[in-house]
Specification:
The chain is α+β, with helices and mostly antiparallel strands. It has helices spanning 3-12, 17-24, 82-87, 108-117, 119-145, 148-158, 162-165, 168-175, 179-186; strands at residues 28-32, 37-39, 47-53, 55-61, 67-74, 78-79, 94-97, 101-107. A hairpin with a 5-residue loop joins strand 4 (55-61) and strand 5.
Amino acid sequence: MYPDLRIALQMFSDCDERELDCIEQHFTPKQVKKNQILVREGSICKTFYYVRKGCLRTYFTDKNGRDKTRYIMADHHLGTALSSFITQRPSLEFLEAIEHSELLTISHDSFYELNNKLNGWKQFYQKILEMAYTFQNRKIEALTTLTAQQRYNQLMLEHPALSHRVTNKVLASYLDIREETLSRLKSGVKYND
C-alpha cells in the first residue's frame, strides 16, 4: 500500500513482511498546505510523520521573535516535534509545512502500541532516536566550531537541494545566520559570521 514507507522502515530495521503489514495499517495519509502549522508551541505533539512528498520544518521562536529552524524534513524523511511527542508535554517548538506536502501519520498511541509488540518497530524507534541524537550533536558542534561560510558549505555538500526548496529566511534560520549573510554566501562572497 505504501511501498516508500516500507523501504524507509527496512532501511532502519529488520522488519519482516508480517510486521510491515501491521505497521502500515497504523499509518494514515494526510495532505497539508504550505505554511500549515501541524504543532504549535505550547500544544502537545500527538503525531509522528513520514514525508512522502513535500517539506516540513521544526522551529523555535527566540525572545526577539526570530525563527530558529531545528530540523528540515523533505521527501522520504521522518520526524516530528520529538521532545513533545516522547514526553507528551507541551512543545517548545512549532512544526510547519513549508511546501504542500503528502504525509503518512501515526498517532502517539499507535506508535507506542507498535513499540510494545513488534521487535522490528522497536529497532526502528531506537534507530530514529540515535539519528536524532547524532543529528542534534552534529548541529551543535557545527554552530560552535564552524564559521557561517563553513556551515553553508557543509549544507551545500550534504543537502544541496535545500537551497532551492526553502526560502532564504528558513535556510538562514537553519544555519543560524542572518539572511544578508546567506545572500552573500550564495553569491560566492567569502564571509565569516
